[in-house]
Give the backbone structure.
Amino acid sequence: MRFRIVCLLSLFFVFVQFGIQAAPNELLTAAEKGDIEAVRQLLQQDSSLVAAADSQGYTPLHKAAYNNWLEVAEYLLAHGADINALSRSGSAPLHGAASYGHLPMVRLLLEKGARLDIANGSGFTPLLGACASGRSDIAQLLIEKGANVNSAMPDGRTPLLLAVWNNDTAHARFLLDRGAKADIRTNTGVSLPYVAATTRDRAFGRMFIDRATDVNERDSIGLTMLHYAAARGFSEQVQRLLDRGADLNAR
């Protein structure tokens, strides 16, 4: 009899422990899938689950934000979710929403008070994530809300450099109008004129080539702007560089 009681108690504690572990995982899965009914039910049973996190530190709000589940995100925020919670890699919900191009989610998070300039472990702010993904619409919204237009990644890349790199001339002009600095250089020696020398937009390329203080300056591997423009076959950029004194015999 005593043995039976011990066994029953052991099973009871196993089930209790399993339930404690399963509930957070269920909420994380429900948030990731956008299952609002499951999210509601689980939080009604235990409101503390809103702060649950997986092994990488991602919370239910991260899961909802990264997958653009607006209704789930709104419900989580209304029930105490930390809008600026950081994963183990230092990413907040806004990082994923911006990088994955979820404009409605970005709007929601900003309305609810998400911080704009948190840099994650890779040095990305939400603005840099949006620019790297080519989402100029999200980048412009973040800047209008106060994001630092001259924020830079550890390697020196800025929103403006990323915009020019992506041949997004309209966005680059927007950034310049908002105070983006043009005299920037990455850790590998890449500057805006270098990137502009290979852009398809001839007028835009010329604008940055004309800003170059030394058209014969070499990057970290010894190449000049003329090398890059010629390699791409951009004859107008080549001619503009030559007009500005580029060395045709540079090797």
Remarks:
- The radius of gyration is 25 Å.
- The chain has three domains: 19-45+60-79, 93-182, 185-251.
- The CA atoms of residues 29 and 60 lie 8 Å apart.
- Confidence is low (pLDDT under 50) at residues 3-21.
